[in-house]
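Summary of Year 1 activities. Much of the first year was spent building the evaluation harness for sequence design. The harness presents a backbone, in tokenized form, and records the residue chosen at every position. We chose the following record to illustrate the format because it has been used consistently in internal testing since the harness was completed.
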């Protein structure tokens, strides 16, 4: 879908626009920050595209997950959601695959519960055998997360009132 070159361009544009009125020394710092951001981005094995569609922000994710990708993805989502001030999130993981010989599940639901605010509703589209969609357990103040097989059911759930 999107490659590392796109990630570099997006990161570069975001940093340069944030520092558009800064001094030259700040621009040198922004250049260094850009390299760090690209290194962190490329450290995740997944490719993520996001877009705002009406009242929610959508993340399309693809690739083979590996250890640590769930936490990186959760904080990438947190940063994007904070920036656009949305509290309804749709995460499409249908194009995410487990690595050969992987044991366990992609722990995205647990990581999202830990990273995001309690007032959020997150719809995760993924296979049941891929993600951890169990109840929150010990978490008292955590976002509402639902796992769905299809996009229609997820959008309907996100559109409904909380608790309904």
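For this record, the design step produced the sequence shown next.
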């Amino acid at each position: 879908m999107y490659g590392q070159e796109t990630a570099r361009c997006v990161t570069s544009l975001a940093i340069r626009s944030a520092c558009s009125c800064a001094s030259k020394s700040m621009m040198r710092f922004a250049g260094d920050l850009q390299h760090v951001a690209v290194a962190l981005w490329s450290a995740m094995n997944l490719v993520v595209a996001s877009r705002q569609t009406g009242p929610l922000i959508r993340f399309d994710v693809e690739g083979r997950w590996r250890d640590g990708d769930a936490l990186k993805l959760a904080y990438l989502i947190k940063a994007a959601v904070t920036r656009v001030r949305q509290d309804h999130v749709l995460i499409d993981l249908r194009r995410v695959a487990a690595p050969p010989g992987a044991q366990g599940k992609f722990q995205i639901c647990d990581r999202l519960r830990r990273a995001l605010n309690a007032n959020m509703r997150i719809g995760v589209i993924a296979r049941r055998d891929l993600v951890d969609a169990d109840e929150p357990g010990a978490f008292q103040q955590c976002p509402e997360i639902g796992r769905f097989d299809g996009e229609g059911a997820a959008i309907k759930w996100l559109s409904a009132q909380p608790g309904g």
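Helices lie at 4-18, 24-43, 69-84, 108-115, 151-159. Quantitative recovery figures across the full test set are reported in Table 2.
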